[in-house]
Each structure stands twice: as C-alpha cells, then as structure tokens.
Amino acid sequence: MAGLPNLEAMLSPEPLLRVDGLTKRFGSKLVLDGLTFALARGEVLGLLGPNGAGKTTTFLCLNGLMRPDAGTIVFDGRTLGGDRGRTISLIPETPDVYPMLTVWEHLAFVARSARLGAGWEKRAEELLASFGLEDQRHTLGQALSKGMRQKTLIGATVLAGAPVLLFDEPMIGLDPRGQRELRHLIRSLSAGGTTILMSTHLIETAEALCDRLIFMKSGVAVASGRAAELRARASDGDRTLEDVFLEITA
Length: 250
Hints:
- The protein is α/β, with parallel strands linked by helices.
- It has a domain at 16-94 and 163-248: Rossmann fold (3-Layer(aba) Sandwich), CATH 3.40.50.300.
- The protein is built from nine helices and ten strands.
- It has helices at residues 7-11, 55-63, 103-113, 120-130, 146-160, 176-191, 203-209, 227-231, 241-248; strands at 17-26, 29-39, 44-48, 70-75, 78-79, 88-91, 164-168, 195-199, 212-217, 220-225.
- It has a six-stranded mixed β-sheet with strand order 6-7-8-3-9-10, sandwiched between helices.
- β9 and β10 form a beta hairpin.
- It is globular.
C-alpha cells in the first residue's frame, strides 16, 4: 500500500561502519570514484577487483593513512576524523615489522600502546599458539621469514582489539597451515563481533569466508551482494563466481 513505511528498513540495524562517496585522485587520475558501502557489526565483507581497482587506496583512506578528497566515514553513528587507528586497524599486504623487536616484544609493544588491561598476556599466548609462533617468540623481526612476519603483524593487530579490521590480501605469504588458521581466526573474530573488510584475489577464499562481496572496477563498486546472489546474475547456471567476477570487471 502506498505511503506505508518500509518495514525492512525500520527493522534493519544501523550499520556499524558506513562509507559514503569516498573519492580519491592522484593528479588527474581518479582512483576512487564515490565509493559507497556499509558493514554491519560482525560482518565479513570481501572487496574484490583487478589490480588498480582501488582496493588498497580504500583501505588507506579508511585507516586514516591517506586523506580522501571527498566522502565520509561513519562509525557507530559518529563521523570519523583523521585519527582512527584504534577504531579501524589495517593489516597491510606487505608485512613490515620492527627488525630489532622479537615476536613477543611486538605483542608487548602493542599492548602498551593500546593500553590493554590485565590479562593481555593470556590472549597474546593464544595468538602465538594459533599461528604456530611459540618457537619464534624470541626471534628478532629481521630474522623472520615473510610468512612469520605476516603472522606476527596479524597477531599484534588482532591483540589491539580494534572493532574494525582491514585485511589487505591476508593470505599472501602464508603457508597452507597459516591460511587455515587465519580463516579460523577471521570466523572467530566475526562471531565475537569484530567487523572485517578483506581484499583478496582468491575468489574461492572470499566465497567461503565473506558474508557479502563487493566487486570493484576503476574505483567504483560495480556489483555487490552475497555470493549466491552474484552467481545468480550469470545467464548460464553452471558458471562459477570467478566467471561472473571476470565478466563484470572485464
């Protein structure tokens, strides 16, 4: 009936994180073109796109490491300014760690910086165990392999407890065991209420882990929805999500 309110909209919770009109230029090149999306508390949202689609730039703008030219970022009803590291934490694709700190010292440094309360050591020990880092706890950052650096960085970032985590190509550099442990960790964090935005080129991983997916091309969200909804856009029912992604972003 005309004039009645949208009941679904009335019952839907306010998104925890809302990005509206995010725009970024580098000189004359438009990298993000009014990107808009929202995430619910505890949701895992996958950001997929070819190289140059604007995924990493999106993460840098959300984390506050890069200033967008336009757009707003709203967390829990509050528009965020430039300092948002404790609200939105980024785990970058390149795992840079402090070369002269041990694995455990990275965790202790984060605990002090984030002013974590008593008991952080137990959580840190759990993270070391989940990533198989117990034997590396006294190893300096400069002596770690790329995969171990990645695990150290992820563990330290998770320990800080930001309500929104950005994973930029998190599976790169991890061995099969590390990938499985990270998938388990992401599911566990989501179940505990942490909101996660993840970019990846691994479409099967995104389909298995993410509640919803966004396909990006040239700084624009060209398609979004659950994996089954995106697959339904294909005219041929036998086509995979990868087929649909390649067609949409071609």
